[in-house]
Every structure is written in C-alpha cells, then in structure tokens.
Design brief:
The complex is a heterotrimer of chains A (189), B (685) and C (169). Chain A is α/β, with parallel strands linked by helices and 189 residues long. Helix content of chain A is 42%, strand content 20%. In chain A, the strands form 2 sheets. Chain A has a 6-stranded mixed beta sheet, covered by helices on one side. Chain A has a two-stranded antiparallel sheet with strand order 2-3. Chains in contact: A-B, A-C, B-C.
C-alpha cells in the first residue's frame, strides 16, 4: 500500500522548477554570456601583439639619476623607446649599437629612453655601466609602461615620430643599420 | 608516403563523421531505422580510420621523418623509440590528434556496449558525440595539422602537406627533440590518462543532452548508463591527476606536487563536479530526487572540461605549463560558446521534463548530508574557478595584473575540504530517509573517542599547531568510521562461521559498489593524511657547501662528496651530478645523486631531485647550483616532506577501490529490474 | 547552519596559521651574512614578476637569482620582510604577491566564494525545509516486515538479507 503514496510525482509545481524559473533563468544566461565575453576579451588581448600605431601611450619615467621624463612633453622630437633588462642576453647584443646610435644622433631632434623592465636595480646599474650607456634610463615601476605598450618580451624598441605617434616596433634585438634608417626616416618628416 | 596516407585518412575520417551526423539525423525519430545501424557502423569506421591516421603520426616520429614539422619539433635521433612514441602527446598537433583518436575510441565503445538498452537515445548520443569529435577532427586538419611538412619557397619557410609551387623540401638531419620536462616516466601515463578522463566526459554529456532532447530524461536507464560512463571518465581523470602530481614532484624540483596553477585547476574542476555527480546520482537512483541538479552537474562537468581545455590551450590564462599556442584559441572559443549556450538553452527549456519526487523525511538523513556534500564540492569548484579567472577580471576592471596563488586556495578550499572529509566519514553511517541522532551517536562515539585519543597523543608528542591537530583528528576519525563499516560487515559474516579473510572477501565481493566506494574513501583519507603532513610540516634548508662540508636539517645531515659532469643522449644532455651522503642521527642512510641536466637542443635545464622515500617522510635533495670554474662549492636545498608517501599510496587505493566498484559484471535481467526499481521511487520491498 | 559556523572558524584558523608559518625559519647565527634560508623565507611569499605563477624561492632563472641576491643585500642592510615586499610591489606591481591584497578591487576574490557558499547554503537550507514541510508520506520502517515474516526464519539470516537488500544498490 505504501507505493502509491511514496511516489508523489507532483504534476503541479515541483520545487526544482520554482527555483529555476523566472529571474534565475536570466541570471544563468547573463552569467554565461558575461563569462564568454570575458574569454573573448582575454583571447583578443592575448592574441594582440605590441601596440604599433596610433598615439604613443603616455608615461612618466623617473630615471636612475632621479630626473623625470614625460613622453607627451617631447613632441617635436623623434623618440626611441627601448625596453630592456639586465638578465636578458639578447639585450646585450644590441646595447652597444643602441649607445653608438644615440651618440651619433643626440645633437639632432632625437631622444632615446631606456625602460628597464622588471629588473634588480644593482644589476641594472651595472649593466648601464658595462655598456657605458648615456641616454636616460629608468625602471618601469609596477610594469605600467610595459603593460601600456603590451610588450611581449625584451628587448623591444618602439619608434615615436615628432607628433607623438607610434611608427612601428622592433621585437628582438636591433642590428645596424636598422635603427639609423628608422631615425633618418622619422627625422626627415 | 605514410605521412600523406595519414593525412588522406584523416580527411576520409572527417567525411565519414559528416555522414554519421547525416545518418543519425535521418534515424532520429525511429530507433529501428536502418539509418541508425548505418550510423553506428560508421562511428566504428571513424575510430578505425583515426587509428590509422594517428599511427601514421607515430610512424613519422619513430622513423625520424624530420621534414614533417611535428616530428621535427618533438622527435630527435637520440631519443629512445619509447620516447619517440610518447612524443605523440608532446606537442600541440600530436596532442590534438591523439585526443581526437581517444574520443573516437569512446564513441565506438558506446556503440558496442550499450547499443540496445539505450536505443531511443542513441541518435542524439551519436549526434552530440560525433559533432564534438568532428570539431576536433577539423582542428586537427585545419589548425594543428600533424602532417605538415617543411618547404622552402624562395627564402620563406612554408608549412604544407603537399609540395607548394616552387617549393624545395627542407629535411633537417635531426629534430629538436621532446621537451625535457616531458622525458620522464611520469609523462608516459599522465597526459593519456588525463585526456581519457577529459574526453570520457563527452559520453555522459551526450547521454544527458540526448535525454533532454528526446524528453526521456525522467526514465531511469539513461542515468544508469551515464553513471557508468562517468565513473569510467572519472577514474581516468583521477589517475591523470595523481600521475600529474607525481610527475611534478619528481621533475619540477620545487619540493611539492600541486601548485594550484591554472592548468592544474583546469583538470581538477571537472573532477570535483564529476565526483559530486557520482554521489548525488545515488539520491536520484534511490529516491528519484535531484534530477535537475544531476543534469546540471553532468553539463557543468563537461563544460569545465571544455573550458579548461580552452583556457590552457589558447593561452588566455597564463600558466607555468606553457604549452599554450594561440592558433587554436578562436576556433575553440567559437566551439565552447556554441556548446555552452546550446546546453543552457536545452536545460532551461526542458526543465519541465525533469520532474523530481521530493520528500524529505528528516534533516538527519543520508540525503541531506549528500546535499551538503554537493554544496561543498560546488563551493570548492567555484572558488577554484573564481581564483583561476580572477587575474583576468582584475586586469579588465582595473588594468592591474595580480597573482592568485596557493595561499588563496589553501585558505578558501582548505576548510571546505575539511568539512567535506567529515561528511565523507559520517554519510555512510546515516540511513536513507531518516536517522535518529541517538543511533548515530552510538555508531560514532568510539571512532570519535579513539581519534581524540590519537590527537591528544600527537599533542603530547609535541605537535602544537591547532589546524594540523584538527587535520590529524579528522583523518583519524574518518578513517576509523570507514574501517568500522568494514568491521561491522565482517563481524556479522563471521557469526555465520566464515573466517575473517573469507568474510572480508565475500563482504566486498557481494557489495562491490558499496565497499569499493568505501575503499575509495579510505584512499582519500590516506591522501588527506599526506596533504596535512606536507602542508603543515614541510621543512627546508638551503646552503652552499664545499666538498666534505655538511648541511643539517632536523635529524638529517647531508655531506657533499663531489661533483660529476658527463653527457648523455648523444651529447645533447649535459648532466651535472652531485654525490652526497645522507645521514640520520649520525647513521649513514644512503648516497644520493641529485642532478641538473641541461639540454642543448632546447636550451632548457631540469633540476632533478634525489629523493629518499620513507613511510614517515621523504628527504628531497636538490642541486641548486655550483661554482662554475673551481667546482669548490655547490648549493643544495633539502626538503623534508612528512607523510608524502601516504599521498601516493592513497592514490593507488583510490584507484583500486574505483575499479573494484565499477568493474562491469554480467547484468542479468533480474538485477537490471531490481536496480531500476528504487529509482522509480518505490521502496525496496 | 552549524557546518557553516565550523567552516568560518576553520577559515580563521587557517588564516592565522599561514601567517605564522612565515616565521618558522630558524634565526641565523649572525646578523650578516644573510643565509639562503632567510632569503628563501622572504622569497617564498613573492612571485617571480616575469615568469608565470612561479614563487621566487624556487624559480631557477637568472633574473630570479638576481632578485634573490637583491633580497639578500636588502636584508643585510637591515630591511624587514615587509619592507622588501613593499619594495617589490612598488617596483613590479601587485602581481608579485602570492595572494591578492585584501583591499580595493582584489578583495572580490575573497568575498565572492564565501558569498556564493553562504548563498548556496541558504538555498539548500530552504529547499530542505520546503521538502520536509511537504505532507510526509506514510512512515516507512523496516520493522513491520520482520513481524510479517514467517516466525521460523532465523532472525540473523533475516537481518543479513535485509542488509543485503539495503546495500545492494
């Protein structure tokens, strides 16, 4: 006799359904779409390489000597932004070439800025000493600059024209005479 | 030749898969349709074709056909044949075709095993499974093709299966070789079992989808079938997780086995929801409750498999396990979007077919503890999920990248696991429907008291950390209550004159599902003991030693003898090995040889620990560095990992218990009927 | 609600514990030189800023070695662990912390799982009450069956059968 009573397949409103209907359904849909949107955004951010064109993201760098440089105040000059780190072997390959090029052009409307990407400061200073680097260099505090430029590694070098727009990027070390050519091209404008 | 053959077979298998979808669609309304039989045979044909195609990839790896890009990337002349075969899952392209092949094997197994009992569901099971399979076949053909060769066209290196116009074949004399991290015995088993676990969940998902689509989800058979397939996937996933931990412990050289890295989390989350399903499905079978909930759990498990595969393979979330390549990201994204949205749509629109019978007699019953346990599993899953994606959310919201590391997971998941283990001890003692507190108290007081006594003993022994003491108490209590269950059954049998051994064998043999489950619980308890030990009592020290000098940690002394350098694998592997002697309380134990291997072709180095394993603790020695020129000093790091052997032993017990519980037996018609009856909501009278 | 209470208690316990483990390392013999163990004790709670998800104390790259040496220098100059950590956060951003700070936006990482669990607990509790409140079916016990059974069966055998029936599925 118990069977009939213990199988109350309630045709009217099983509680499960009550809890799942109405706002709950929409909440589930909204959450799922939000998650997919997040993944889509992540995919895009991940696939995108360094920023290559458009206005160069502005930043203020405090050099190891304590001076501050703000990119937006440098309009009218060609700016070469080089991301490096003392622990990065390919950076060493280009360091001498960068410094030589700087010395060649520093009397024209050109400024080099070295951005030291996550580094131990004593090693960074030793690196600057080793290659006798004279253009301004400073640490990328909180990785804000490298995030803004979305760099994928070091070294990376960004070219900024006289109007403050990005004009390309070199991923990996620079070898002569690539940098000379780029500077000549941007200076001629 | 064989490479081209494999490529053509892959294309052929895709065509057959398309035919399967068409035939199953034609037969969707008629279980006796000849279309359906044809679809079934074609699924088996797809499996056969993919077997040949995968074998062709293995051939190019073993034969060293380095014009094939994939073989060039992961194989090399100096590797053993065995390693060359395992290189199949050593890179993206190979992994995808291997994965595809495994999935087709599962699909074929379903066709062979459960054809008749679930015939009405079959058209949709085939469509969902082969639809998923087709996606992976497509990825293998168009995005991560393992058959592509290398060609020079002018100065450009081109990847193409056939010779491009003006192309000159590039045939490197040697390949780059397998990533050194993967050249370890642990890597033989870890990826295949993990993949088997992952792809295995497509079957329960397909059954769930089929049940929703056909509106047959209120019937009992599909949930039986689903439970079995879930168990198959679950045991492989468990093995994969344990082997992964072991591999990390043996190869990664950081003294641990689990780092809550996104890739690890990705494989752990489906395990959690799968485990939750395996438990709550019992309520559905016995009481007809939680039908919607179980459906959600199956879908969630499969979605987490896909989500995990996506985030780790696409590189959306960065991880230490850097096999991420972005090329398959967009395709995968499209695929999971469609899958998730379709699943949710079906679930929401078909909810009304999932009528549950709800009545709860008592809050103190096995049902309610099972529900609590489900809440805990889902809570852990959510915390893990949230921690995994939070760096992305943070970056999107504030632009600031942050790390969510092990401390987060330990703090949030640790307590949840503790309560979960507690429910694991109590739930088996509770009856379905209702249980009196008095009876529960009678069953629990003795294990409780013994566990308290053990804990007090540990306190006297000098363990002061309250959380660790609680952990030990928990492990003792739950272990004892589980053993009690065995004891009770064995005692009852012995009263009928059986010897203790026979009583135990018969007890387990006659109730494999139940006692197999308890053995799994014992395995979990053993693993918990190892986790408590390593989390709370790991010790470490590091120091630079000159030959003859010693480093001390706890009761151990490590004396540095000398450093050796030699080459292996045709000069590719440069080994720097330290010979050290290990003493305990001044007594010599063993000579250990931790080493650091540098692989020239990959420019990668590995720090391989030397481990002395004892039941109580492991001594884990790493060679961290050495003086390059003089060899006068080397830096060593020693970890003492208490009870870590229990973790591995518990893993074995867990797997043994699952196999015992799930090993298929010949089902008689009567036992099928008997198994179904309770699910219909009747009492077992 | 009791389990939840236990849970929260444990949460605090674990929290207290994890902060305590940082000081487990034995003090060095002298103030300087700083031992590897002291460096590692600090580096353990920091993450390598350039590698993915790798604690600084076990990270094998050159950059990490440099940072560990820097920590050694800082410690020998008398910096506290907190100062070193702050220095790393200032220089490399909050990603060097093993766990997100419990303030500002990142606090969400802590709040949401707890909130979800509490929410789930409330829903579960209400569901259980709701199910329980439904008209209870006729009390089913196994005792009447025994009395119905023919009296000549050995009660122990009967108990075994009962157990088997109960446990089979």
């Amino acid at each position: 006799m118990t069977e009939a009573i213990t199988t109350p397949i309630d045709e009217s409103t099983p509680p499960d359904d009550q809890t799942q209907t109405g706002p709950w359904r929409w909440l589930a849909v909204v959450l799922l779409v939000a998650l997919l949107a997040l993944m889509g955004w992540g995919l895009q951010a991940q696939a995108g390489g360094p920023v290559e064109s458009g206005p160069a993201p502005d930043f203020t760098l405090t050099t190891f000597e304590g001076e501050t440089i703000t990119l937006s105040e440098l309009k009218g000059q060609v700016v070469i932004i080089n991301f490096w780190a003392s622990w990065c072997p390919p950076c060493r390959e280009e360091a001498a070439y960068l410094e030589a090029t700087w010395r060649k052009y520093k009397d024209q409307d050109v400024l080099f800025i070295g951005v030291d990407y996550v580094d131990a400061e004593p090693n960074a200073l030793a690196y600057l000493e080793e290659f006798d680097i004279t253009y301004p260099n400073g640490p990328d505090l909180g990785q804000q600059i490298s995030d803004a430029y979305n760099i994928k590694g070091v070294p990376e070098t960004f070219y900024v024209d006289k109007t403050g727009h990005l004009r390309g990027v070199q991923i990996g070390p620079l070898y002569p005479p690539a940098l000379d050519h780029k500077i000549e091209e941007l200076l001629a404008e | 030749m064989i490479n081209d053959f494999g490529y053509i077979i892959l294309i052929l298998s895709i065509l057959v898969s398309v035919y399967v979808l068409y035939a199953a669609w034609q037969g969707r309304n008629d279980p006796d349709s000849p279309w359906l039989v044809s679809a079934r045979n074609a699924v088996i044909a797809v499996f056969a074709l993919l077997t040949l195609s995968t074998a062709a990839v293995v051939y190019s790896l073993v034969a060293g056909d380095f014009q094939v890009n994939y073989a060039y990337q992961v194989s090399s002349l100096s590797m053993s044949t065995f390693l060359k075969v395992t290189a199949l899952w050593g890179g993206q392209q190979g992994s995808i075709i291997f994965w595809t092949w495994l999935m087709s094997a599962f699909a074929a197994a379903v066709m062979v095993r459960k054809w008749d009992t679930d015939r009405p569901l079959m058209p949709w099971v085939i469509i969902v499974t082969v639809g998923t399979l087709l996606f992976f076949q497509g990825v293998s053909l168009f995005i991560a093709n393992p058959f592509e060769r290398l060609w020079f066209v002018g100065n450009d290196l081109v990847h193409s299966v056939w010779q491009p116009v003006g192309g000159v074949a590039v045939s490197p004399r040697n390949g780059q070789g397998l990533n050194p991290l993967l050249r370890h015995p642990g890597m033989i088993g870890h990826p295949p079992t993990l993949y088997l676990g992952f792809v295995g969940f497509v079957i329960p998902y397909a059954f769930a989808m089929a049940a929703l689509i056909t509106g047959r989800s209120n019937e009992a058979t599909w949930i039986q079938t689903t439970r079995r397939w879930t168990l198959v996937a679950w045991v492989f996933l468990s093995i994969g997780l344990i082997l992964g931990g072991r591999w990390a412990y043996d190869v990664l050289g950081w003294g641990g086995y689990w780092g809550w890295d996104p890739v690890e989390n990705a494989s752990f989350m489906p395990w959690l929801t799968g485990t939750a399903f395996l438990h709550s499905v019992m309520i559905q079978e016995k009481r007809g409750m939680l039908k919607v909930w179980n459906m959600i759990l199956i879908i969630l498990t499969y979605s987490l498999v896909m989500f995990g595969t996506f985030i780790t393979r696409s590189g959306v979330i960065s991880s230490v396990h850097s096999f991420a390549e972005s090329a398959i990201g967009p395709a995968f994204f499209a695929f999971i979007s469609v899958t998730f949205l379709a699943s949710l749509y079906l679930l929401l629109t078909r909810l009304d077919t999932l009528k549950g019978e709800h009545e709860l007699d008592s809050l103190l019953s096995r049902e309610s503890v099972f529900l609590l346990q489900n809440l805990l599993f889902l809570g852990i899953t959510f915390a893990t999920f949230w921690g995994t994606i939070f760096p992305m959310i943070s970056e999107l919201a504030t632009g600031e990248k942050i790390t969510v590391g092990p401390p987060f997971y330990n703090k949030v998941n640790g307590p949840l696991f503790a309560v979960l283990v507690l429910t694991m001890g109590v739930a088996p003692l509770l009856a379905w429907r209702k249980h009196s507190a008095k009876r529960l108290g009678r069953a629990l007081w003795l294990p409780f008291a013994i566990a308290v006594a053990i804990t007090l003993g540990l306190l006297l022994f000098g363990i002061r950390n309250p959380t660790a003491l609680f952990g030990y108490w928990l492990v003792a209590f739950v272990g004892l209550t589980t053993l009690w269950e065995f004891g009770k059954g064995i005692r009852a049998r012995m009263k009928h004159g059986e010897s203790p051994g026979l009583a135990m064998v018969r007890l387990i043999g006659r109730n494999r599902r139940r006692y197999g489950g308890y053995i799994v619980h014992l395995g979990v308890v053993m693993m918990a003991l190892g986790i408590v030990g390593t989390n709370f009592f790991q010790q470490e020290t590091q120091g630079m030693l000159a030959p003859g000098e010693s480093l001390h940690l706890d009761r151990y002394t490590l004396t540095y003898e000398r450093l050796l350098q030699y080459e292996q694998e045709g000069g590719d592997r440069h080994v720097t090995e330290a010979k050290v002697n290990l003493y305990r309380d001044g007594k010599f134990l063993r000579t250990l040889r931790p080493h650091k291997d540098f692989f020239e072709s990959n420019e990668q180095s590995l720090t391989i620990p030397a481990v002395l394993s004892r039941p109580g603790e492991d001594v884990y020695v790493l060679l961290v560095g050495w003086e390059e020129i003089s060899f006068n000093g080397s830096t060593f790091k020693i970890y003492i990992n208490p009870l870590v052997s229990w973790l591995w032993a518990g893993g074995l017990v867990l797997i043994a218990g699952t196999l015992l519980a799930a090993w298929p037996e010949k089902q008689t018609a009567a036992s099928w009927a008997a198994a179904r009856r309770p699910a219909l909501g009747a009492t077992a009278q | 609600m009791k389990p939840l209470f236990i849970l929260i208690t444990i949460l605090f316990l674990v929290g207290a514990l994890l902060t305590a483990t940082a000081s487990i390392q034995p003090p060095a013999q002298a103030q300087s030189p700083i031992s590897d163990d002291e460096v590692n004790a600090v580096a353990k709670n920091l993450y390598c800023p350039v590698c993915e998800n790798t604690p600084l104390d076990v990270c094998p790259t050159q950059a990490c070695k440099d940072w560990r040496e820097m920590i050694r220098t800082q410690l020998s100059e008398g910096w506290t662990e907190e100062q070193v950590t702050d220095y790393f956060v200032d220089k490399f951003g909050p990603r060097v912390l093993a766990q997100p700070p419990a303030q500002g936006f990142p606090i969400l990482v802590w709040i949401l799982p707890v909130a979800a669990l509490l929410g789930g607990g409330v829903v579960l509790w209400r569901l259980l009450r709701q199910w329980q409140a439904r008209p209870a079916p006729v009390e089913i016990t196994t005792v009447p069956n025994i009395s119905v059974a023919p009296p000549n069966i050995d009660p122990e055998v009967l108990a075994r059968i009962e157990r088997e029936v109960e446990t089979r599925f």
